[in-house]
Amino acid sequence: MKILIVEDHQLFIEGLRIILGDLVGAPEIVCANTAARALEILGQDTAIKLILMDIGLPDIDGRALLKILRSQGYRQPLLVVSGSENVQIAKDMMESGAQGYVLKSGSLLELRKAMQTVINGGQYIPLGWQDLFAAPDEGGPKAMAKYLHITERQLDVLYLLAKGHPNKAIADWLGVTEHTVKTHIQALFDALGVRNRTSCVREAERLGLLTKL
Known about the structure:
Blueprint: E1 2-6, H1 10-24, E2 28-32, H2 35-44, E3 48-53, H3 62-71, E4 78-82, H4 87-95, E5 100-103, H5 108-119, H6 130-134, H7 140-147, H8 152-162, H9 167-174, H10 178-192, H11 197-207
Parallel strand pairs: 1-2, 1-3, 3-4, 4-5
C-alpha cells in the first residue's frame, strides 16, 4: 500500500516510516513537507491509498488543505496525526473531510486501529473523546462567524489572509478568481468593521475567529 505523509518535521517523518513498516508490512511511503507539495504529489500519483497529515503546515493550515483536497475530488482516506488535544480542532478537521484524528502522544496500537478504521471506510477519534464529540458545539469560531454573518468560504479566505497570502495565492488555493477573493475580503472588512488586512486579522484574532492550529 502506498501512503502519503504530509508533515513538516523530518524527525517525526522518519519515526513514522519505522512505525509504519512494523504496522502494515513495509508500505511504500511518499512524503510532503508542505500543503503545496502534497497537492503536487497527489496530482501526479494515483496509487496513493492513504494520507496521514499533520495540521500545522508551514504554508496553509490543515483545515484549508482538507477543503481543497475534497473540492478537487481527492477521496483517499485521510487520518490527521496531530499533537493538538483541542477537541474543537479535531471536530473542525473531521467536518472538513478527515476520516480520523489520532494524537501523536497516543500508542502504536491506537495508530494501528485508527489506520485500519479509516482504510475500511470508518471514522476514528481518540480514545475517551466520544462523549466530547457528542456534546453540542455552542461556541467557537463557527458560532462567532454565524453571529457576524460570515460565511464558510469567507472564513477560508480569512484563514489564508491571516497566513499572509496575497489575493492571487488565495484565489489559486481556493480555485476562485481574484475578483471573488476581493469580494470576500471586502465582506470581511464590513463584518468586522475594519478597513485593511492587518486590522482584519487582528480583529478576527480578538473575536476568536482564527483557531490556532
